[in-house]
Amino acid sequence: MTTSTRERIVAESLRLFADRGYAATSVAEIEAAAGLSPGAGGLYRHFRSKEEVLASAIREHIDRTRQQVSEVLQQATTYEDRPLEIRLKMTCQAGLAKMREEQDLIRVLFRDLDQFPNLVAEMREGIVNPLYDSIATWLAAQPEFEHVDEDWPAIASILGGAVVNYWLANESMYEPPTRIDEKRFVASWARLGLGLVTIEKSASAT
Fold this sequence. Notes:
The protein has helices at residues 5-20, 27-33, 50-74, 84-101, 103-112, 117-141, 152-173, 182-205. The chain is mainly α.
């Protein structure tokens, strides 16, 4: 599938912002990366400024994430026939895959977005909170947790936060915390989720 000039500008600008930083990336460099004549003003035929390019990149990622979250929720019961531990592992793996997919945007968020509080708010409300909400909704929808009286949003913040921290540690320190590889992390993450069932059984027995 061919991409439009606008799409190339957005994709290449986000890559450059992630690699070099927003302030260190010039409009001419974005134009060159997008296949335009550098310094000829081609970017301004599609965007009013470099900041608008960044905002467009964020909003496109938000739109895609919302669609992905919607699809996940629609399929929340698809794998009910599989053991809960397998479903938990699949959910954790999906979270790590989402972090990898958004890695350029996340780098920009942590390095440059403090100067754009309005874009931080859009990220928070458009991507971050919906992802945590989707984890809470998914957990509550699992049949094993049907009678578990838990604060699912709070649990989602813990489980989701573990995924985020694990990925960020890999990115920033070039290896996982205490060298725990992804397979071990996913397995342990799932076992923590299984503990919710154990809590419910213990409560029922008392």
